[in-house]
């Protein structure tokens, strides 16, 4: 039994224009409209017309001040969830960290709701939970990939991990903590020439020239850049560990290394025992007792070995002959 879609219920062929049925146009007519026609070559010499609006037309450019005022009025009615989604969108397309003021200028959302939304977003997008993590770096906020996924992201992007040489790290650390600092001061601390390392750090935009010192020779002053903060994921220079924290961290690492490389533990009070005048006599007495115990152990082992030999000889000897056998040996 079939359901008829055409004039005749018994006809199984769908009517034209219905899904699965023949169209109103033939295949030749459709190909003539949609396919490349033989006359397309004549458009090769024709210049394409402009189909986008000209942004240089000042008559069509809206007033930025009035637009921002409208944006402010609209942002007052946004819910907390909507504010969060707006900030997510803006931060997602941003090429660099955005400060709260920049987010305010972009969205018109008041600063207090922005801070509350950023705090919520940092809880949602955090390491180990989300593949995209919200970081506060270089005085702003930025979405970055989760560090745990770095291996996969690098493989997809076909990039090598960025690593600095020991000389570069040492020079950069001195500049970060002593800035503004001159090249002679760097070389005095490191004890080697720093010209090549300084140039490489400036090429990487991790170090910049801050000016010149007002003294004889006017040496150049160097300092860190915004890219330095972004490279090491630092909010600002105050996020660097203090000297006290550095020394505590160094002491902690030193204790870990000493613990792992330490020799087997010795008995407590060894130094005090060695300083005891009777220690030698006790050691000689203990040594004599140890030798005596060792001799007793050797004698016991020798007796056990003799017993083992006797037992083996008994087991290996032939069975005794039956009584009445004249050829066999007589029992004693």
UniProtKB/TrEMBL annotation:
Q: Where is the composition biased (Basic and acidic residues)?
A: 322-332
Q: What is the lineage of its organism?
A: Bacteria, Pseudomonadati, Myxococcota, Myxococcia, Myxococcales
- The name on file for this protein is Segregation and condensation protein B
Work out whether the entry's keyword set contains Transmembrane: no
* Chain intervals for the UniProt region annotation (Disordered): 1-42, 299-332
Q: Per the record, a Pfam family?
A: SMC_ScpB
User: Source species, please?
Assistant: Corallococcus coralloides
NCBIfam families the UniProt entry points to: SMC-Scp complex subunit ScpB
- InterPro entries for the chain: ScpB_csome_segregation (IPR005234), WH-like_DNA-bd_sf (IPR036388), WH_DNA-bd_sf (IPR036390)
In the record, biological process GO terms are: cell division; chromosome separation
């Amino acid at each position: 039994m079939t359901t008829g879609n055409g004039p005749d219920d018994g006809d199984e062929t769908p009517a034209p224009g219905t899904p699965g049925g023949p169209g109103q146009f033939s295949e030749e007519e459709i190909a003539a409209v949609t396919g490349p026609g033989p006359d397309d070559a004549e458009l090769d010499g024709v210049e394409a017309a402009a189909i986008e609006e000209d942004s240089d037309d000042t008559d069509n450019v809206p007033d930025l001040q009035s637009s921002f005022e409208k944006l402010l009025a609209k942002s007052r009615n946004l819910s907390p969830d909507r504010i969060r989604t707006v900030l997510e969108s803006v931060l997602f397309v941003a090429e660099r960290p955005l400060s709260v003021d920049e987010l305010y200028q972009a969205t018109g959302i008041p600063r207090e709701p922005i801070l509350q939304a950023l705090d919520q977003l940092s809880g949602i997008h955090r390491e180990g939970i989300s593949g995209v993590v919200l970081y506060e770096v270089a005085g702003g906020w930025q979405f970055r990939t989760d560090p745990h996924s770095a291996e996969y992201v690098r493989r997809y992007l076909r990039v090598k991990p960025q690593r600095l040489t020991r000389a570069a790290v040492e020079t950069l650390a001195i500049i970060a903590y002593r800035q503004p600092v001159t090249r002679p001061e760097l070389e005095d601390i490191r004890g080697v020439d720093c010209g090549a390392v300084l140039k490489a750090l400036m090429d990487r935009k991790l170090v910049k020239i801050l000016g010149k010192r007002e003294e004889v020779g006017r040496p150049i002053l160097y300092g860190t850049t915004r890219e330095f903060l972004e490279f090491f994921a630092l909010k600002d220079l105050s996020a660097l560990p203090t000297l006290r924290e550095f020394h505590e961290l160094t002491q902690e690492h030193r204790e870990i290394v000493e613990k792992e490389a330490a020799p087997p533990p010795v008995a407590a009070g060894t130094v005090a025992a060695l300083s005891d005048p009777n220690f030698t006599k006790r050691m000689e007495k203990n040594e004599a007792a140890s030798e005596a115990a060792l001799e007793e152990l050797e004698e016991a082992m020798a007796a056990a070995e003799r017993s083992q030999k006797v037992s083996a000889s008994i087991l290996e000897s032939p069975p005794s002959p039956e009584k009445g056998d004249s050829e066999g040996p007589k029992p004693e």
